[in-house]
Amino acid sequence: MDFINISPHIQKNRQDQFKFSYEDMKRFPLSKSALNRALILGAQWKGFKILFPYSPKYSSAIMSTDTQLLLQSFEKIGLRLMFTEEGVEFLNSFPECENMTHSKEVIPLITRDGGTTNRFLLALLSLGKRIYRLEVSALMYSRPMDDLIDALSALGSDVQKKVEEQDGVQKYFFQIDPHQENSPNQIHNGERVIEIRCDKTTQFYSALKLISAKKQIRVIPTEVSGSQKYLAMTDHLESIQRKGESHFFAPHDMSSLSYLLVMGLLVGNLTIDRIQLDPLQADYAFLDLIQKNSWAEVKISPTEHPHFDQVNTYQTLSLKTRPNNFSAFGVSALEYPDLIPTLVVFSVFVEGESVFYDLKNLIYKETDRVMELRKLLTLFRVRHEYDEQTYTLKVFGNTPDQHELLSEEIVYHAPEDHRMIMAGSLLLKFKTLNGGQVSHSGHVKKSFPEFFYFLRRCP
Q1: In 203-268, where do the E strands start and end?
Q2: Beta 157-166 vs 106-112: how paired, if at all?
Q3: SS3 label, residue 288
Q4: 8 Å CB contact between 179 and 128
Q5: Which domain holds residue 114?
Q6: Where residue 179 sits, what CATH number does that domain have?
Q7: Is 305 helix (H, G, I), strand (E, B) or coil?
Q8: What are phi and psi of 183, to 5 degrees?
Q9: 418 and 319 share one domain
């Protein structure tokens, strides 16, 4: 179960400073959400470039396993990419790159449990002519997919979910056989239109929007209950293609930044050198919350980057904590569901009753994160209440100076969920006297491969 030891925070003067340097930030991940969207667009566009903050030789650190699996699938479907000192360039495009020799054979792809990887790739493959089979995890197989499958079927593809037993082990697959296009369900003023429900995830809309230019369709999201920033991110990237721009700067991951921000808030003062902030990402909201609630003084200064002449693209971010202002807060999960585990951890260290609303869609993540967060709070003896009717969680916290640290060594048997593993690791760092252990540590590679490096750098 790949356990890893977590050392406790060394209690120091809260005015002490620590810094994540330029060399540290070479290990910091790119936004999986933005990068995977850009890769799906680039796959349809020969010559398109995605520029990275740092050299791609650091790709194992800055790219999530979901992105690496997407790139491996690209190679198998015939796409050719060239990595340079600046980033990656597409040398051909899909579906033009398809090899039609033995065209009736099924092409196997391994995609595992990534939502964007599977949903976006399935939509891309609907542009082709070959039959593809995506081998997914049991968890991915059980996550919401039917609305996207129905939409792709309406657009002319035969998509099937399959379960097979191989050598005594059950295997799970999504298989797509693109057919000649059927007409979508609706035509408005001569425009081909397809509606897609987004009450469970907006990734369905994004998957279709990213292929809309080649499919020559207009995609309309319905029953959108949240995650508006993800819709805006998709629309922004798709507009790059429509305007004929030839490159995209891949930003750093704001979800991963949230863990560094919690470290900074709980230690005292933090400086992060040369980060590319991205307000289009939903989890940028943590910076807004810090400033709105006066938890810290935030300074963002533009800085030059050694690779690119983009003075205003890269910033130095600094926090100067105001621990006496760590007051309770309330947030809805509708707009930034991936930020909730980090915010729940932080709420343990603020005075009073913090409230988390609209948690229903967290049930559909890599695990049932509502249930797992409740287990985690119980393990660390944090008082909390949950209303199953309204999907509302209340956490009753104390400021760091008033907190009772757990003296025994804690072992957190985490689920195979990267965000829960990182949330639990933060509590092991800051809620215990002697640290502890967390299981399934390798799963952080799904979004933040070098998370434990940054956690060790935190005093």
Answers
A1: 218-222, 247-249
A2: unpaired
A3: helix
A4: no
A5: 32-249
A6: 3.65.10.10
A7: coil
A8: -80, 140
A9: yes
Residue 220 CA to chain centroid, in angstroms?
23
pLDDT in tens, 409-425: 899 999 999 999 999 99
pTM for the predicted model, two decimal places: 0.91
CA max distance for the chain: 69
Instruction: Give φ, ψ of 373 to 5 degrees.
Output: -65, -40
How many domains does the structure of the chain reveal? 2
Tens of pLDDT along 242-296?
Answer: 888 889 989 999 999 999 999 999 998 899 998 989 998 999 999 999 999 999 9
Give the CA angle between residues 330, 297, 458 to the nearest 5°.
Answer: 85
pLDDT > 70: what percent of the chain? Answer: 92
Residue 316: C-alpha distances to residues 16, 285, 376, 451 (Å) = 18, 18, 33, 20
Quote the CA–CA distance of 164 and 172 in Å, as a whole number: 7
Residue 251 near residue 62, CB atoms below 8 Å: no
Q: Which two tokens stand for residue 266?
A: 């709980």
How many CA atoms lie less than 13 Å away from 139 in the CB half-sphere?
14
Distance CA 324, CA 318 (A): 18
72 with 14, same domain: the answer is no
Tens digits of residue pLDDT in 221-240: 999 987 889 999 999 999 98
DSSP of 396-439, one letter per residue?
A: EE--GGGPPPB-SPEEE---S-HHHHHHHHHHHHHSBSS-EEES
